[in-house]
Specification:
Layout: H1 3-12, H2 25-30, H3 39-43, H4 46-56, E1 71-74, H5 81-89, H6 130-143, E2 151-156, H7 163-172, E3 180-186, H8 198-204, E4 208-213, H9 217-225, E5 233-238
Parallel strand pairs: 1-2, 2-3, 3-5, 4-5
């Protein structure tokens, strides 16, 4: 797909907010100050979030109630600075909100709140909830006969230590939830997941799986848009270790 076609597709689905680019994200993130920013957790997701919102997701501020929109669920709710920066860059919320991040009366809390943050589909923060919620969302859309919207969930590798995610992985494959897409940001913070074994864990449960460099935008885009008929899809995005 050419860049021109890509932009045309984004405009068709409402993503017409081109005043900010990827190079603006560090500045937008820098507007957020205060304690408990979880900087490494936030920056580990930055490239994944940008590629999704800039090139893949069929979402936009004016489509908040559109049943045909894609659903993006941020399960890796620690350190949402990158998420807020991308939402601001794409017009979901004003950049003027960013300096108030984490303050008493700010809608931008240390964990995103779907009631307060425009564009947020779920409240997140506690590990292990997002993937089960994404499975339920995919099932709900199927039950309504909505086979167009994709369901995307971003999780961290440490969340795979949680049993709730194991159950969701084991269910989604046999259920053939092919509108379900999971992105695992792997910054080597899991306690029990075997190094290099994340994709294999999903594949064993019937998922389509691929591991890529989580900083390579073209590799991410190719992995996000690869066909996977009849199966849910997982992309493991490897980034630098959290303590590096």
């Amino acid at each position: 797909m050419s860049i021109g076609t890509e932009r045309a597709d984004r405009h068709e689905y409402g993503n017409t907010y081109d005043s900010y680019t990827y190079t603006d994200l560090p500045r937008l993130m820098g507007m957020m100050t205060g304690d408990e920013k979880h900087g490494p957790a936030a920056t580990s997701t930055l490239d994944v979030l940008w590629v999704l919102y800039d090139r893949v997701l069929r979402v936009g501020p004016e489509r908040a109630g559109d049943p045909e929109r894609d659903r993006f669920l941020l399960s890796k709710g620690h350190g949402p600075m990158a998420y807020y920066a991308v939402l601001a860059a794409k017009g979901f919320l004003p950049a003027e909100w960013l300096p108030e991040f984490g303050s008493h009366d700010s809608p931008l809390g240390h964990h995103p709140d779907r009631v307060l943050v425009p564009g947020a589909e779920i409240g997140s923060g506690s590990l292990g909830h997002g993937l089960p919620l994404a499975v339920g969302t995919a099932l709900g859309l199927r039950a309504q006969g909505l086979d167009g919207p994709g369901v995307w969930v971003l999780i961290g590798d440490a969340e795979l230590d949680e049993g709730s995610n194991h159950e969701a992985i084991a269910y989604a494959g046999p259920a053939g939830l092919d509108r379900l897409h999971t992105v695992v940001v792997d910054n080597a913070s899991a306690s029990h997941a075997l190094p290099g074994g994340i994709a294999a864990r999903f594949e064993a449960a019937g998922w389509s799986a691929e591991t890529v460099d989580g900083r390579d935008h073209e590799a991410l885009y190719a992995a996000f848009t690869a066909p996977h008929p009849g199966r849910p899809r997982v992309v493991v995005a490897r980034v630098e270790p959290k303590d590096a």
